[in-house]
Amino acid sequence: MDDLGEAPLRRLKSAVSGGRRATQTSIVDVLEAIRRIERGTYGVCEMTGEPIEPERLKAIPWTRYSLQGQKELEKAGFGRRHALPALESSREMVLAMVRNARQMRRRIRASVRFS
Questions:
Q1: Is 32 part of any domain?
Q2: C-alpha to C-alpha distance for 108 and 114, rounded to whole angstroms
Q3: Could you give the residue ranges of the DSSP H alpha helices within the chain?
Q4: Are 32 and 94 in contact (CB under 8 A)?
Q5: Does the pLDDT of residue 1 top 50, yes or no?
Q6: Which H/E stretch holds residue 79?
Q7: Domain for residue 60, yes or no?
Q8: CA–CA separation, 115 vs 100, rounded Å?
Q9: Is residue 93 assigned to a domain?
């Protein structure tokens, strides 16, 4: 195959790879938001410590920063994270969440029995 025939194939492979990375990043962002809910820190800007605007949370539920916090990050030269965490760490996070959910379910069932 000549260069003209290989170019579309390379572009397609690149697009698929980029889509896969974006999906992984989105999943990790959502899992991290769930962890913040569990810790009671969801909706608090990690940069300023102030509440994140409700409109921003509605538009980007997994956001970690208020609008002001995001502006400060970008001004300092930091934007969105591009590196993905290792899949193993995400797997461990999911397993821990499942264990926590099971423990909570057991506690709820036990408290209902004794009520």
A1: yes
A2: 10
A3: 3-39, 54-59, 67-75, 87-114
A4: no
A5: no
A6: none
A7: yes
A8: 22
A9: no
Q: Which domain, by its residues, includes 9?
A: 3-84
Give the pair of three-digit tokens for residue 52. 């994140």
Looking at residue 78, its amino acid is F
Distance in angstroms between the alpha carbons of the first and the last residue of the chain: 74
Nearest to 26 by CA among 84, 109, 98: 84
Residue 10's Cα: distance from chain center in Å?
29
The whole-number pLDDT of residue 75 equals 87
Q: Answer whether 66's CB lies under 8 Å from 52's CB.
A: yes
Please state whether the predicted TM-score (pTM) of the whole model is above 0.85. Answer: no
How much is the CA Rg of the chain, to the nearest whole Å? 20
How many Å apart are CA 34 and CA 39, to the nearest integer? Answer: 9
Check which CATH number belongs to the domain holding 26 and give it: 1.20.120.910
